[in-house]
Amino acid sequence: MYSTARWLFGLAVAIAFQATSVAWAASPEAVHGQHGMVASRSALASQVGADIMRGGGNAIDAAVATGFALAVTYPDAGNLGGGGFMVIRLADGRVVTNDHRERAPAGAQRDMYLDASGNVVAGRSTQTHLAAGVPGSVAGMLDVLEKYGTLPRKTIMAPAIRLASDGFVLNGDLAEQFGEAAEEFSKHAGSARVFLKKDGGRYRPGDRFKQPELARTLELIAAKGKDGFYTGKTADLIVAEMKRGGGLISAADLADYKSVWREPIKGQYRGYQIYSMAPPSSGGVLLVQMLNMLEPFDIKASGYGSAATIHLMVEAERRAYADRAEYLGDPDFYPVPIAKLTDKRYAVQRFSDFDATRATLSTSVGPGLAREESPQTTHFSVMDAAGNAVACTTTLNLSFGSKIVVEGAGFLLNNEMDDFSARANTPNSYGLIGRVANSIEPGKRMLSSMTPTIVVDSEGRTRLVTGSPGGSTIITTVLQIVINVIDHGMDVSDAVGAPRFHHQWMPDRVVYEPWGISPDTLKILQSRGHTFVPLPWGRGIGDANTVMRSGDDLLGMSDPRNRGGAAGY
Ligand code: DON
Fold it and tell me: Of 126, 234, 377, 393, which is the active-site residue?
């Protein structure tokens, strides 16, 4: 009798709890703080950034500390041997961006990935020493710290050095990813030494993972700054690795590398200011171009997830990505028509053939099957109470880059050269097509899709700091988050958690997340001529670790598609 009553009471509580929690939110809670907030793919790295702010650093200090920590705790994409972009808004309202994208070595040639018959040699631009561009991350992070940080380099780098030398306990997520790449790692002595156990066995969740060689490289950088990487011992080790594996990066390439301060791409959308990354990323230009095409339409009224809204957004995406293939590349080598592409009048003209009832089929340039997306670029977002904000996207390109660790230096080399157009109109790893604007030239930066973005409200306060990995899907992921916040009024957890879709002109299809589009909505869209493909890869589209301001609260949201973390106070 007593136990039945208890059981009934328990059931009632469970039902009440369930009903309340369903009413609260569809997505996991964001992390709240008032003073500083970091959201990244690694909870350990986010904590490093939050601790730096708690210890008196600003958001820029925290971003650089998080960046170095990610090179240790998320080696899939966090890096010393890769490159990235940072969009920074300072407390006084100035916005600057740092381009630390990799460059083609001086010995690179336009046709270096083609065989004698002019065909692309599979794997050469992704799995060999020739795949690596000259790394930019160390130069970028140190330049950013020197210009806008407040704490000494050694303080900023100490947590990363500690995590590398003392090690950290591997969670299932990382151990699984090491396992997936184990066979590739075993082909290179330097990589096997880091990512496999001494007996050649695989790491398991719960194992302590130490990286003594990486710790020594980080110590050299902490002591000597850029010279600790681009000259001296680390540079010698990179050049020796290149000699061993037939790569091109020379001592002169390393000594010549410089990060570049670029004007941000600016846009306005429904009274908000949008700041994002300029070429050599295509992200900012395409984001603003798509927002410009969408602004004349009442997306709030057509509603999240409706056939009308999806149709509209897909048509904007189709047109913007077609422009990407033709016009976008490194602006130091090719005259990218930035002003024209981001002009609202151009958007009106470009969208003038939009038909609300029919899909405009992408012209046939060859199908180009997009490969499975791997989540191995990474984005992190930082805000402090003073109003400084940093959006940083960084990468080795594919999962663990070339999977080649520089022997003795303990870090992975990127395979970013694959982001060039190896041959005109031939899709790269993401099915993206490019032409002369993105052809290989010595010293040129390969075109990126990375879209670190800051959104400022009409009162001049930073509202949103966001970005994502996901190759070609990065730009449409950021677009959807901006629209979720501005048009649909979602809070940060729903804006980041909401299902996503993606179209990139070629191949002419919409990829969508499981359960993301209802069957009757799909039917309507198919009847308008769209082709829909359920997500052909596992983890969803993107990994948009985002920070948003709500009143005086800073809300940190690590994308629920993955196992990152936000930390703040
Ligand atoms: O710069 C780019 O656009 C690519 N290298 C990004 C790669 C990426 O996002 C991989 N992760 N999914």
Answer: 377
Question: Distance, CA 291 to ligand 1 centroid (Å)?
Answer: 22
Instruction: Name the residue of 447, 450, 537, 562 whose CB sits within 8 Å of the most ligand 1 atoms, as the mutation to test its pocket.
Output: 450
pLDDT of residue 369: 26
Mapped onto helix, strand or coil, the DSSP state of residue 93 is coil
CA of 101, closest atom in ligand 1:
1
Distances (CA, A) of 164 to 56, 158, 205, 212, 231: 24, 10, 17, 6, 22
What is the percentage of the chain residues whose pLDDT exceeds 90?
88
Q: Are 439 and 261 in contact (CB under 8 A)?
A: no
Q: Which tokens sit at 101? A: 């994208």
pTM higher than 0.90: yes
Band of residue 431 on the pLDDT scale cut at 50, 70, 90: confident
Identity of the amino acid at 554: L
pLDDT at position 363 = 64
Rounded distance between C-alpha atoms, residue 394 and residue 132, angstroms: 15
Average pLDDT, stretch 144-155? 98
Q: What is the pLDDT of residues 227-250, one digit of tens each?
A: 999 999 999 999 999 999 999 999
Residue 430 predicted with pLDDT over 90: no
Non-local CB neighbours of 209 within 8 Å, separated by 6+ positions: 167, 168, 169, 170, 174, 203
- Closest approach atom of ligand 1 to CA 374: 12
Distance of CA 356 to the CA centre of its chain: 32
**Mean local confidence (pLDDT), 66-73:** 98
Helices (H), 392-511: 473-486, 492-497
- Residue in 74, 449, 476 to alter for ligand 1 test, most ligand atoms within 8 A of Cβ: 449
Q: 56-68, pLDDT tens digit by residue?
A: 999 999 999 999 9
Question: Per-residue b/e over 391-414, b at no fewer than 16 CB within 10 Å?
Answer: bbbbbbbbbbbbbbbbbbbbbbbb
Ligand 1 pocket, CB under 6 A: 373-377, 395, 397, 416, 419, 448-450, 469-471, 474
Query: Closest ligand 1 atom, CA of 449?
Result: 3
| Residue owning tokens 């973390």 | 565
Cα distance between the two ends of the chain:
49
Catalytic residue check, 531: no
Dist. CA 469 → ligand 1 center (Å) = 6
Q: What is the largest CA-CA distance in the chain?
A: 85
The residue-averaged pLDDT of 502-519 equals 94
As a whole number, mean pLDDT of residues 41-47 equals 98
Å from CA of 524 to ligand 1 middle: 32
Ligand 1 atom 5: the closest Cα is on which residue?
Answer: 397
Q: State which ligand 1 atom lies nearest to the alpha carbon of 474.
A: 9
Task: Give which of 183, 88, 79, 206 is closest to 136, Cα–Cα.
Answer: 79
- Higher-confidence residue of 432 and 501: namely 501
Centre of ligand 1 to C-alpha 386, Å, is 31
Residue 398 Cα to ligand 1 midpoint, Å, equals 7
